[in-house]
Amino acid sequence: AKANEDVDIVQVACGEQFTVVLTSLGHLYTAGLAEYGQLGNGETGEHFVAANKLAFANATKFERRTVFVQDSEDSNAKKGETTNIPNGGQIAIASVSCGKNHTVAVEAPTTSGHIPRVFTFGCGDYGCLGHGVQADQYYPRLLATLRGPLFATNYPVRAEAGSSCSMVVTKQGHVYYMGKHRQVGEATMRPALIDALANNAHVVTSASGGAATVFCTTKNGVTVSWGKGDTGELGYGRGNQKSSAQPKFVESLDSCMVTDVSCGYGHTLFLVKDDDSEDAKAIKKLAKLETDQVTL
Predict the structure, then answer these.
(1) Which pLDDT score is estimated for 51?
(2) pLDDT tens digit string along 184-236?
(3) Which of 145, 248, 155 is nearest to 189 (CA)?
(4) Most C-beta atoms within 10 A of its C-beta, which of 3, 44, 89, 237?
């Protein structure tokens, strides 16, 4: 930024032991643990501090990330190699989200006309970075699958991450998923459309992932969740099932317009629209949680 230019922090995302900050200029800053490449600076700094004890080059202050890479499919490099994307310092990010040890970032729309790109970095367990392999990425790496004519008008706009999964929401409300959030079943190694929502004309407006849960809310007021929620975080209600293999309606929120959702490791939070009398009626039907019922 120029000396006389005001820069605001517009988004903060946290993993288990690292933090990512996004500014109003679209600049990406990271700090914290470097063990899996969470800092996006190209290294972990792994070294021995004792005979059997490893340490890493963790960052105690925020530093901007200006290096973005792409694999051989998107460059002239040899197969299997990655190269720096030209003018990486000019890439502006619009949305960022962190899992336990990884980050997903979506580029802001540009005047050059190219489709906003998606980058992932950090721990690659369960394919949560979307590159088809369980390998850590030390620089923000272009997710080439979410490019091409299919995304010309339905381009990525929002990044979301669970503990070991990632989601990208597009302009038309489709959600692409990668990784794994359920203990059973196979991991999704590359971005896959959640067709149970897209094929039923659901336009997703927000999404979030927890330790073992995923939530999506839609334009027409539908909220769905799936995964495993032993402490009720799926929202199906007391005495009802605690897991679901497929997206399932959260019936208690049927009459509410959820504008945003955020999942923790054992809980879920919602922002609910409260603009008119109909909204007020819907909110009144919801169960109330009093402060004296919360155990700290």
Answers:
(1) 78
(2) 889 999 999 999 999 999 999 999 999 999 999 999 889 999 999 999 999 99
(3) 145
(4) 44
pLDDT tens-digit series, residues 89-119: 999 999 999 999 999 999 999 888 889 999 9
Q: DSSP assignment of 45-77, as one string?
A: --EEEETTEEE---EEEEEEE---EEEGGGSSS
Q: 171: burial class by Cβ within 10 Å (0-12, 13-18, 19+)?
A: middle
Q: What is the rounded distance in angstroms from the CA atom of residue 214 to the CA atom of residue 192? A: 15
Helix (H) or strand (E) holding 102: strand 102-107
CA 296 to chain CA mean position, Å = 28
Q: Which helix (H) or strand (E) holds 190?
A: strand 188-193
As a whole number of angstroms, the distance between CA 110 and CA 78 comes to 29
| Lookup: tokens for 209 | 């992932």
List 265's β-bridge partners, or say none: none
List, for the chain, all residue ranges whose pLDDT scores fall below the cut of 50.
none
Element (H, E) at 18: strand 18-23
